[in-house]
Amino acid sequence: MKIDLLSNQPEFINEVSEMVYKEFVVKAGSGMKFEDVVHYFSNTKDYSFPITLVAFENEDCFGTVSIFENDLKIRRMYKPWLASLYTKPENRGRGVGKMLIDKAISVVSELGYDELYLRTEDASDYYRNRGWTYLETVSDEKYNKIDVFKIKCK
Predict the structure, then answer these.
(1) Which residue positions does the secretion signal occupy (predicted)?
(2) Pairing relation of β-strands 81-87 and 60-68?
(3) Nearest-angstrom CA–CA distance, 65 and 6
(4) Residue 27: its pLDDT value, please?
């Protein structure tokens, strides 16, 4: 399995867009259209934000993760952020998520950052069990409870 920048693997743009759209956009009720998501992922960067990584082998895409400059408006002092980690259900339990996270941490470190942040509404135990440090619980503009975590990159 390989982890690479989505910008280097454009053949996976539609598949990544579909994963993120179904798992994050629709569930959040943002109103964003699928075409907007495809446009977004068609314009991710190599080494400036937003950055998207993809896990794949041959022609099979297993999962994705992105790195944003900010993923929580009320916490602009934290940056950058791990976002939209998704592994296809049939590939879970194979270490895909860990590999994506490890590569994201490496990219963030290469960019000169000492820490990487994330927000989660329902996966706090997953990140705690992988060495992330809990920072705080906040409420967003919709009054959802959000746990904020960080990890050292260097």
Answers:
(1) none
(2) antiparallel
(3) 10
(4) 83
The first and second tokens of residue 26, run together, are: 């629709």
Q: Is 76 exposed, middle or buried (0-12, 13-18, 19+ CB in 10 A)?
A: exposed
> What pLDDT score was predicted for residue 31?
83
Joined together, the tokens standing for residue 9 give 């693997």
**Tokens representing residue 82 in the block:** 């791990």
Burial of residue 12, with CB atoms counted within 10 A of its CB: 0-12 exposed, 13-18 middle, 19 or more buried? buried
Please report the pLDDT score of residue 74 as a whole number: 85
Q: Which tokens sit at 41?
A: 């992922």
Distance between the two ends of the chain, CA-based, in angstroms? Answer: 25
Give the whole-angstrom CA distance, residue 39 versus residue 62. Answer: 21
Q: Which residues of the chain have pLDDT under 70?
A: 141-143
CA dihedral sign, ordered 25, 140, 43, 57:
negative
pLDDT digits (tens, 9 = 90+) for 131-146: 999 999 998 766 678 9
